[in-house]
Amino acid sequence: MKIIKVADQIEGAQVAFDILKEKIENGAKTLGLATGSTPIELYNKMVASDLDFSDMRSVNLDEYVGLSKENSQSYYQFMKEHLFDKKPFKESFLPDGMATDIESHTKEYDAILEKYPVDLQILGIGNNGHIGFNEPGTAFNTQTHLVDLQENTIKANARFFENESDVPRQAISMGIASILKAKTIILMAYGQAKADAIAKTVNGPVTKDVPASVLQNHPEVYIIVDEEAASEL
């Protein structure tokens, strides 16, 4: 684990972009992407750059169950707005929140991940230490699966919706085992609210109670944090 302390999200995005650019120059072909506020500045830098993603593939971590691709709060729309409409990839894969047979769909998504191994995975982290939508208690050998979102995750995501009651209660997420298969992982965290989760991820025991702590077992992880997120290290 390499801990990189930065002044703010803008500097963190630049550090992440520099790592991403180097990996692409060294042959990376598949990027694992995340949603939420944390990676937005990174995507802005990707859009503003001269990097060409038209011969690359992307796979996203997760999607809400029950939201169609057309829904403004779907992660599909988030990725279109912040990256794909401006910097299209050869192919971009996201879980289908409207899949009628979720068990079959998760197996299909695992097959995509097997066919196109992730070279570089972007992660954020939840206040409770979740990565993707893998909530505390998730087994480390989990692959793509249906997740029941915990109450604090629902509350944290409510800011993106008109009402908290509009936040979906389930999601499809890459599992922890799926995430760990990435050759390189960049986790970004900003703000005091993430300090406890970061401290437990870096210094605490590897435990299912803090899903991100399993990253201690990965050979190449960069953790990019501002002063507040790093305050309990």
From TrEMBL:
CDD domains: GlcN6P_deaminase (cd01399). GO terms for biological process: carbohydrate metabolic process; glucosamine catabolic process; N-acetylglucosamine catabolic process; N-acetylneuraminate catabolic process. Residues 20-219 form the Glucosamine/galactosamine-6-phosphate isomerase domain. PANTHER family: GLUCOSAMINE-6-PHOSPHATE ISOMERASE. Catalyzes the reversible isomerization-deamination of glucosamine 6-phosphate (GlcN6P) to form fructose 6-phosphate (Fru6P) and ammonium ion. Belongs to the glucosamine/galactosamine-6-phosphate isomerase family. NagB subfamily. This is Glucosamine-6-phosphate deaminase.
